[in-house]
Every structure is written in structure tokens, then in C-alpha cells.
């Protein structure tokens, strides 16, 4: 590959990486002299008003990408903590054991993404948030977990709270 083609690829990669910013970033901590950072983003649950998750992940710098030779991939590691920040209104959420994805961010050009999945734990009346990497080729055990217990909170279910499997339906007679 000639010098001009290499410079073109480098320029395209730099512009692409610069466009990956997120306006929900609440903080960034530099971790070394090459410009690598740990970014922290606020992720609001789109179907549960009053719950916010803070997701921390590693952002590789341009210098690190050049020196490592892996231009288009960031590490899968993440940390997650979620909490109720006010009255909680639960909308139309999935109660399936697999839950539903509430956040996704690419961690490579094509193959890898960082995701946050919400799972409702009906037996304990809690929302579980799981940050994990999803890769097409290889699965990853890199994950982080946070739980928001709903007992004792001011919680409103827009479609009515799900019934536990042991609940029977009662009929009021007047």
C-alpha cells in the first residue's frame, strides 16, 4: 500500500472515531499519557422513568490504536451501576427471562458491541441491568450487573404490575 493510501486510511479512521462521541457522557478520566480514557455515560431506561444507569467503559486513543495496530476495536470491559433517581414509572417492559436491550454501542467497526439489557425479577420485584459485550465470532464473559429493588419505592406501573405465578385472581363482590 502506498504512503498516500495509508494516510487516507488513517485520516478516515481518525474522523470516524472522532464522530463516535455521545452527548450523554457525564465524565471522562484519562488513564495514561497516550490519551486512553475511561468514559462514563448516563443511560436512562427508555421504558422505566426514574431509573438511570451509569456505564463506564474504556476508550482507546489514536496513539494506542496506531501502536497496537488494531484500529477499529475497543476493549469489552465495562462497569455499570443503576439507581432510582425519583418516582419510578414502569412502562411496557418485557417480563421474559431474557429481558430486553435498552442500550447498544459499537465497540468495533462491525463485530462487537457493548449492550445493557434489563431483566425484571418478578419473584424479588427488582429490575436487573446487565452490561455485556456481544460479539459475532466469540462470546464474552466480560459483564457487569446492577439491581434496582422496587420494594419500598414509589412505583407506578402504567399497564399494572405483573402478577407473580402464585397470585390468584380475586373478585370483589358487593
UniProtKB/TrEMBL annotation:
Q: Which InterPro entries match?
A: Uncharacterised_CreA
Q: Which UniProt keywords apply?
A: Signal
What Pfam families does its record include? CreA
PROSITE patterns found in the cross-reference section: PROKAR_LIPOPROTEIN (PS51257)
GO CC annotations on file: cytosol
The keyword Signal belongs to this UniProt entry's keyword annotation: yes
> What is the annotated signal peptide range for this record?
1-18
* Key word Hydrolase present: no
Name the PANTHER family on file: PROTEIN CREA (PTHR37952:SF2), PTHR37952
Tell me the protein's name.
CreA family protein
Record the organism. Answer: Devosia oryzisoli
Amino acid at each position: 500500500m502506498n504512503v498516500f493510501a495509508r494516510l487516507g486510511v488513517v485520516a478516515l479512521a481518525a474522523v470516524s472515531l472522532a464522530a463516535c462521541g455521545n452527548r450523554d457522557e457525564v465524565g471522562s478520566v484519562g488513564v495514561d499519557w497516550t490519551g486512553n480514557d475511561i468514559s462514563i455515560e448516563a443511560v436512562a431506561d427508555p421504558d422505566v422513568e426514574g431509573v438511570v444507569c451509569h456505564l463506564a467503559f474504556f476508550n482507546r486513543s489514536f496513539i494506542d490504536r496506531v501502536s497496537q495496530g488494531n484500529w477499529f476495536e475497543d476493549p469489552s470491559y465495562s462497569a455499570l451501576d443503576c439507581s432510582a433517581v425519583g418516582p419510578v414509572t414502569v412502562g411496557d417492559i418485557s417480563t421474559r427471562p431474557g429481558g430486553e436491550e435498552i442500550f447498544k454501542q459499537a465497540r468495533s467497526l462491525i463485530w462487537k458491541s457493548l449492550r445493557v439489557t434489563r431483566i425484571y425479577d418478578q419473584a424479588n420485584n427488582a429490575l436487573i441491568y446487565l452490561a455485556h459485550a456481544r460479539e459475532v465470532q466469540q462470546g464474552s464473559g466480560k459483564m457487569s450487573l446492577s439491581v434496582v429493588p422496587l420494594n419500598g419505592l414509589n412505583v407506578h406501573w402504567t399497564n399494572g404490575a405483573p402478577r407473580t405465578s402464585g397470585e390468584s385472581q380475586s373478585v370483589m363482590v358487593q
